[in-house]
Amino acid sequence: xxxxxxxxxxxxxxxxxxxxxxxxxxxxxxxxxxxxxxxxxxxxxxxxxxxxxxxxxxxxxxxxxxxxxxxxxxxxxxxxxxxxxxxxxxxxxxxxxxxxxxxxxxxxxxxxxxxxxxxxxxxxxxxxxxxxxxxxxxxxxxxxxxxxxxxxxxxxxxxxxxxxxxxxxxxxxxxxxxxxxxxxxxxxxxxxxxxxxxxxxxxxxxxxxxxxxxxxxxxxxxxxxxxxxxxxxxxxxxxxxxxxxxxxxxxxxxxxxxxxxxxxxxxxxxxxxxxxxxxxxxxxxxxxxxxxxxxxxxxxxxxxxxxxxxxx
Amino acid sequence: xxxxxxxxxxxxxxxxxxxxxxxxxxxxxxxxxxxxxxxxxxxxxxxxxxxxxxxxxxxxxxxxxxxxxxxxxxxxxxxxxxxxxxxxxxxxxxxxxxxxxxxxxxxxxxxxxxxxxxxxxxxxxxxxxxxxxxxxxxxxxxxxxxxxxxxxxxxxxxxxxxxxxxxxxxxxxxxxxxxxxxxxxxxxxxxxx
Lengths: 312, 193
Fold this sequence. Notes:
Chain A is α/β, with parallel strands linked by helices. Chain A contains eleven helices and 15 strands.
């Protein structure tokens, strides 16, 4: 059974029917938003059942759309949190990607701006490495990007998408060693993008991120994970009641190869390890549970089949 | 950009220059500074790296008076002021309190101020100077140029006088003799520093 990430949008009336249906079919709901009288569900559903859900949700005016970024956590790395770089364009993209299902976090190095003086600390690097993909938002000058790129990418192991002022071709030419994705014509600007062209660039970034994410998914499919991250999320939700008291918007953040659990590591890591998935296999058997560099959260890294020899 | 007589951004990278022209325009527009600048030349060389902004300022003589944002209507012993723009309300009230005393000034709602038995007629009150925007002008200009300049350029040297200004920034130590560079850029606008 292949699970595909989709977004369901529909009225609030009888939306629990859809939730039950998704769960009965073996799907998982990653996020649920209720906005006025509308419900948005970001979920994984079995590929063969998409049509069934479409048919059942039709009388409820529900809409099922593909959203490949559901279940990914993206780091949007802005060179600083100063007004020079925020809210445009870093927040523009972060917010835009959230609408189509990605969980984006803004990460900003303490000493990111500048050319020669730009640097990335080990903590910042580790935080970026906890994400699935990193989008680095650079400035407008190609000589500057060329100079600071090696210093900023050092140690980052996740795929990087470079966003910068020069056009895409120029970015490809100046960036050594190569990044996984490039989006040009989106450097530093200090106003809200309103024109069709400016909004079109956001779509371009999304397309590039999607391409990189799909490529990573294909890589993972070659050596599948021992358990689906969405399944672990459901299990933790059932077995650790404390997660319901967390006020963060996504107490359990699903990633492509794991899960971020927003509970203190020292208190909950032991309990998490002991949760049984099925037939006596516990989470500790199929995943590594490590402290996250982000606050005192827990990071669950699911091991691939080649390491555990089990798939549950 | 009609308000500015001369506005150029010079940079070895043409695309970078176009971006910085847009940034400068947006920042100056946001901070309402286009009306005070008459000529502006910006030079950026990311390879050095250096950012230079030189320009001339327009004379600002306009002070904000009560009549610019309120109208006074005298009725027997009281004068009622109807406020159309709240921005200068606080400094105006402060001046009234100082001049007439708090017991004679009343503000029944957001857009109304009533003065009782004051020793001034409506015309005199309308003529009172409430604020002088040129007082904070240099502060605003420096803030705006800090926003325009690339963020890493934190070593700055700035000179602001009533008519002309220069703003130089870099991330490295600045050269000791900046005057030659500044005069070169002034010369491009047909001005002397």
